[in-house]
Amino acid sequence: MKYSDDIDFNGKVVLVTGAARGIGRACALAFAEAGADIALGLRDKNSDSGIIKEIEKMGQRALPLQMEMSDIENIRSAVAEVEKYFGRIDILVNNAGIAPGNNIEDVTESDFDYTLAVNLKGTFFATQAVGKIMIKQKFGRIINLSSQAGFIALPQEAVYCMTKAGISHLTRCCAAEWAKYDITVNAVAPTFIKTPGTDEYLSHEENKSKVLSKIALHRIGEPKEVANAVLFLASPGASLITGTTLLIDGGWTAV
Question: Which fold has domain 13-248?
Answer without folding.
Answer: Rossmann fold (3.40.50)
